[in-house]
Design goal:
By secondary structure, the protein is mainly alpha-helical. The protein is about 60% helix and about 5% strand. Helix 1 packs antiparallel against helix 2, helix 2 packs parallel to helix 6 and helix 3 runs antiparallel to helix 6.
Length: about 230
């Protein structure tokens, strides 16, 4: 069980809408593609060659969206048996320490995700081993924008990308930088959500990053409902 935290800022509401809309679309597309493939396979002895690869990418996107969304709704698993031994003030301090560590981890993940994706999009990686000190000078030998996926064909409505990033050369399959773009997006959303969660602890809206005793509360609610029946 989890809580849904309503955002008070325009940025927070925009991110909420983006996350929830994207998750709904991804789930819908995965279901539709899988259903069509089943019908084609068993009804017509054919299928979408690119269906498996597409659903694999969509599932990876869903996981990357889900990790930040679960932070927002406090759906990640957490153990509070030790921190609940302390009073509220110490719990908040421990929550702030945990939040700082999570923000640091998400920051490293975001940097790594950008550096991995950047060359596929002909963009520079960040300079610095763990803290970005700027952007590296791009070398032509590091361009990877011509890398394509295995099966998903390049739709005509994306052909405008070719002169911008592939020197006008036509893609037969979609370039990898498109599905891989979810790596920095997902890591950036995770960083944003950890900052939000830590801010809630700082302002007293929460005393930890996880939902305390929500399972016990749910059991108590069900027990009371059963008693009423």
């Amino acid at each position: 069980m989890s809580h849904h935290h309503s955002s008070q800022t325009a940025l927070g509401r925009a991110v909420n809408e983006f996350e929830e809309t994207a998750i709904a679309l991804i789930l819908g597309l995965m279901t539709l593609i899988t259903f069509i493939n089943v019908v084609l396979r068993y009804g017509f002895n054919t299928g979408l060659i690119w269906g498996l690869e597409m659903t694999t990418f969509l599932f990876a996107w869903l996981v990357l969206f889900g990790m930040s969304y679960a932070v927002k709704v406090t759906a990640h698993l957490g153990v509070d048996a030790v921190i609940n031994l302390f009073d509220l003030r110490i719990r908040r301090v421990l929550g702030l320490i945990a939040g700082a560590l999570c923000i640091f981890y998400a920051f490293l993940l975001f940097k790594g995700a950008w550096d991995y994706w950047a060359n596929f999009a002909n963009l520079p990686q960040t300079d610095g081993r763990w803290f970005p000190l700027g952007f590296e000078e791009m070398k032509r030998t590091s361009y990877r924008s011509w890398y394509e996926v295995v099966d998903i064909p390049m739709p005509d409505w994306l052909r405008w990308i070719e002169p911008l990033i592939n020197e006008g050369e036509a893609y037969e399959k979609i370039p990898r930088f498109i599905p891989y773009a979810m790596l920095p997006i997902g890591a950036g959303l995770l960083l944003f959500r950890f900052v939000q969660a830590t801010w809630r602890v700082m302002t007293g809206e929460a005393d930890s990053l996880i939902a305390s005793h929500e399972a016990e509360d749910a059991v108590d609610d069900v027990r009371s409902l059963n008693a009423e029946d």
